[in-house]
Write a structure and sequence with these properties.
Number of helices: 14
Number of domains: 1
Radius of gyration: 23 Å
Distance between the termini: 43 Å
Length: about 425
C-alpha cells in the first residue's frame, strides 16, 4: 500500500519518495516493522491466548523441565504470521506475482496449522488434524505454486549469456542479447553454470513439446515434495524453546541474500547465477520474515512464554520451501535446511527400525533414545532401555541443544553458498 502511495508522491515531484524505489530501503523498513510488530503485539496476543486457555498440552516423556511447560500458551504462530503479513502488505508491491504467492502461501499454511492447533486444544490431547489432511493441505499449496510457475507469463528467468565488466571502483553492465525465457530450470551446485533443466530428464519421451510438458510436470512434483518435506521438518524441529525459530531465521538470512543477488541483473551476471526478473519483492518479504522471527524469539527463547504451535511451524517450513522454489533454489534445501531434514529422517529411522526389529524378534528396538533427534540429546540415558545409540549418557539442557543446532544451521548456510562456487 505504502509502495503505491510513495510512487504517486514521486510522480508529484516529491524527491524523498524516491527512496521507496530502492529494494534495500523497503526491505529495511519491512524488517523493522515486522520486528516491532512481533515484540509489541506479541505480549497482547500471549495475554489473549492465556485468557482463552489456549495452553500447550504436554505428554510426560521423562524430559527435564517438561512438566513446567504445561499450560504455556500455544498458537503463537499467529504473532509470526501477522508480523510477516503486515509489512509485506504495507511495503510490498502487491501486483508482483512473487509477493502474491508468498502471501497466499503464508495464509494457506497458517490456516492449516491453526486448524490443527485448534483441534488439539478442543480435544484436550495431542491428536489434532489427521496426518492425511495435513498432507492434502501441503500438497494443495504445492500445486498452486507449481502450476502458477508453470503457466504464469510473469514468472520467467534470464538466460546466462549476459556478462558484466568489473573494475576496482565500479561494476557496469555490458549490452547483450539475453532475453527472458520460460523454462523449468533450477540451481544446482558443483556444475559450471549451476543450472539444471527438468526437461533433461524427459527428453526420452519423444517430441520437444512432450518433453517440455513432462519437464514441467516433474517440476511440479518436486515442488510438492519440497513443500511437504520442509513444512513437516520445521514442524518436527519445533520441540524445544527457540529451536525452530532460530533455525528458520538463519535459513531466512541465507535465502534473502540469494534472492537479493538473483534479483539484481548486475550481481547475477557478475556472479554467473540465475537472474529472475521481478523477484526483488521477495527480498522485502523475507526481510519481514526474519524480523518477525527475531521479534517472536523475544518471547520464545528459553524459558518460552509462548509456543508457536503448528500454526507457526507448518507455516515457517512451507514459507521457506515456497521461497526457495520461487528463486529456483529448491534442490539446495536438503543442505540449507539440513536441521529440518535430519529431524525428518530421525523420525523415519526410529519408526522403521522399531517395526523391523519388532517383526523379527518380537521386541522392538529403538535407534535413538527419543525422536525427533533433539529429544535424543535432551533425554537421560537408560541402561536398561533397548536403544541402539544410548549416548550421550547425560542429557543436555535444552538451551544448549538450541544454540548448538543454531551453530550447525549457520554452518550449513555457509556451505550452501560455498557449493555454488565449487564448480
Amino acid at each position: 500500500m505504502l509502495y503505491y502511495l510513495f510512487s504517486e508522491l514521486e510522480l508529484a515531484g516529491e524527491t524523498f519518495a524516491r527512496l521507496f524505489g530502492y529494494v534495500t530501503v523497503r526491505a529495511s523498513v519491512s524488517f523493522i516493522i515486522a520486528l516491532l510488530c512481533a515484540t509489541v503485539i506479541g505480549r497482547r496476543i500471549i495475554d489473549r491466548l492465556q485468557m482463552a486457555q489456549m495452553g500447550e498440552i504436554v505428554r510426560n516423556l521423562g524430559l527435564e523441565g517438561q512438566t513446567k511447560k504445561q499450560g504455556t500458551p500455544t498458537m503463537g504462530g499467529i504473532i509470526i504470521i501477522i508480523s510477516i503479513l503486515l509489512p509485506a502488505l504495507l511495503i510490498g508491491k502487491l501486483s508482483n506475482i512473487y509477493m502474491l504467492l508468498m502471501v497466499i502461501a503464508t495464509i494457506w499454511l497458517g490456516a492449516l496449522g491453526f486448524a490443527d492447533d485448534y483441534l488439539k486444544i478442543k480435544r484436550h490431547n495431542k491428536d489434532g488434524m489427521a496426518g492425511k489432511y495435513k498432507i492434502v493441505g501441503q500438497v494443495g499449496i504445492g500445486l498452486i505454486v507449481g502450476l502458477t510457475m508453470t503457466f504464469s507469463p510473469d514468472i520467467t528467468i534470464r538466460d546466462d549469456s549476459m556478462a558484466v565488466k568489473a573494475t576496482s571502483t565500479e561494476v557496469t553492465e555490458n549490452v547483450s542479447v539475453s532475453s527472458d525465457i520460460k523454462a523449468a530450470q533450477t540451481t544446482i551446485p558443483f556444475v559450471k553454470n549451476n543450472n539444471l533443466d527438468y526437461t533433461w530428464f524427459t527428453k526420452w519421451m519423444g517430441s520437444e513439446k512432450t518433453a517440455r510438458t513432462a519437464g514441467w510436470v516433474l517440476f511440479v512434483i518436486v515442488v510438492i515434495c519440497a513443500v511437504t518435506a520442509t513444512s513437516n521438518g520445521a514442524n518436527l524441529t519445533d520441540g524445544i524453546d527457540g529451536l525452530a525459530t532460530g533455525v528458520s531465521a538463519i535459513i531466512g538470512v541465507a535465502l534473502l541474500l540469494m534472492a537479493y543477488l538473483g534479483s539484481s541483473i548486475i550481481y547475477a551476471s557478475y556472479l554467473n547465477i540465475m537472474y529472475i526478473p521481478g523477484s526483488e519483492e521477495l527480498v522485502v518479504y523475507m526481510a519481514a520474515f526474519i524480523g518477525a522471527l527475531i521479534g517472536f524469539l523475544w518471547y520464545n527463547a528459553f524459558p518460552a512464554q509462548v509456543f508457536m504451535g503448528d500454526t507457526g511451524s507448518l507455516t515457517l517450513g512451507g514459507i521457506i520451501a515456497v521461497f526457495a522454489i520461487l528463486i529456483r533454489k529448491e534442490l539446495l534445501l536438503p543442505l540449507l535446511c539440513g536441521i529440518f531434514f535430519i529431524e525428518d529422517i530421525s523420525v523415519m529411522i526410529q519408526t522403521l527400525w522399531f517395526k523391523m526389529t519388532k517383526k523379527r524378534t518380537g521386541t522392538g528396538q529403538r535407534v535413538f533414545k527419543m525422536a525427533p533427534i533433539h529429544h535424543h540429546f535432551q533425554k537421560e540415558a537408560d541402561p536398561s532401555a533397548n536403544v541402539l545409540w544410548n549416548k550421550p549418557a547425560n542429557g543436555m539442557h535444552e538451551a544448549k541443544i538450541t544454540i548448538r543446532f543454531w551453530i550447525i544451521s549457520i554452518l550449513l548456510a555457509a556451505l550452501t553458498f560455498i557449493t555454488l562456487k565449487i564448480r
